[in-house]
Amino acid sequence: MPERLAMSGVVRTFASGDGVRGVDLDVLPGQIHALVGLNGAGKTTLLRLALGMLRPQAGGIRIGGIPLEQAGPAEWAAVGHLVDAPLAYGELDARANLALAARLHAVPKPDVAHQIAAVFAELGLGAYAGRKVRALSLGNRQRLGLAAALVHGPQLIVLDEPTNSLDPRGVILLRESLLRRAEDGAGVLVSSHHLDEVARIADRISVLNAGKIIGGLDPHGINLERAFFDLVYADDERRNASGDLERRLP
């Protein structure tokens, strides 16, 4: 079975010199792969490249074994993502927004109501189904964005800081959802600042610094924070010594 996502030698830089450089990364079926790094390391840029929101200047990206530039509706219907702020129509209620997301991801019309009910229950949103999005709290808007990313049962899930604005119950519900979906064969790529949280769910943790993957962390290791900062510090020292210390992304 091909990787859910494979990135090889991916390069995308900007006029400022920021970007990602020579990144190799994959997400296997049934695997949760966490991407961690300091602010400005390039995590969101890398996720946007994985989703076709940005095009690489070099390297290759494959989704479900298909080159990104050849991916069609069938491949994209198997992808769910939440990058940046959740997108929703404020004048529509949560149920209507989720119905739109389901149809856009090719959920058959007879199955939409069932899929919506299931993901509302999964993320604890049932009580808010009839509320207009503009009246929802930030945390519940985040849950709705996650629900839209998951409603169609994607085989590749890409999430950027998914616990933003979530209360402890929301964090636990999301954690259980991702673990359950990985057990069913989905591949998950998640970026986060929260090492303690990703360690609870990740099979692999890759560290991104100044646009490059500089190593990995053992999710079951002791003192992950220390291991993380040791990796980043050593990389900064190496690049500083070689005159290649790059300004971090804003």
UniProtKB/TrEMBL annotation:
The keyword Protein biosynthesis does not apply. One of its GO terms (molecular function) is ATP binding. PROSITE patterns: ABC_TRANSPORTER_1 (PS00211), ABC_TRANSPORTER_2 (PS50893). Residues 5-235 form the ABC transporter domain. The keyword 4Fe-4S does not apply. Keywords: ATP-binding, Nucleotide-binding, Transport. SMART domains: AAA. It comes from the Bacteria. Belongs to the ABC transporter superfamily. This is ABC transporter ATP-binding protein. It comes from Sinomonas terricola. The lineage of its organism: Bacteria, Bacillati, Actinomycetota, Actinomycetes, Micrococcales.
